Amino acid sequence: MAKKSAQAAPATEPNGTVEPKPVAATDKKGKATPKRPNQSKARPPVNPPLSNKEKREAVKKSGPLTKEQKRQAKEDVRAERARIAEGQWKGDPLFDKYHLARDRGPERLLVRDIVDSRWSIGQYYMFGAFAILIFSTSGSVQLQSYLFIALLVLTAVIVVESICLTRRVKRLVFARFPRTEQRKGGLYWYAIQRSIMPRSMRNPRARMSYKAKEDDLGKVVK
């Protein structure tokens, strides 16, 4: 019996012709030829921002502004500032970006409303300390001793109010925002700092009255 050939015989067509063997891509290089990636060209933006040079050229082409245009531009700026101030006062989240970093977030808004909705002696601390400082310059030793006692009493009252305030902040803020990333110490200090400021000097300005209910605190005013 004849031995089988180690190599397979080439395939033949029905008409008797031999089909040529296809050449593999790895016959010459020893490895497959990599395909080229489809690289898409970066398209420019539809409305690219103008450079400083282009802005100056646009201003030159438009010509100097008239008095009416200048007056209208000032009115537009004033109206925009009023709109931003009103949005901040209402607690609108869209205007939260105009606040300082320490005043941003719904938790800070709720803390401000908690402080502004309660009357406290701490908001008169600056006036009391300033008055004590002025009267302490008098030569009367007895008056200075009385003022020192008054300052100690005022400080003790503020400490007690701060403790009550932090407890209320903890109860309301962490009940409404259980997964907040705000630290307790930061919220407590933020509330205490605002409570010892006069109500008219607080920034952002107070938006809650002393008769405000707990359900209204921290909500956006429509």
From TrEMBL:
Keyword field: Membrane, Transmembrane, Transmembrane helix
Start and end residues of each stretch annotated as Disordered: 1-79
Pfam families: DUF3043
Keyword Protease in record: no
Chain segments annotated as transmembrane: 124-141, 147-166
Record keyword rRNA processing present: no
InterPro entries associated with the record: DUF3043 (IPR021403)
Domain of life: Bacteria
Compositional bias annotation for Basic and acidic residues: 67-79
Protein name: DUF3043 domain-containing protein
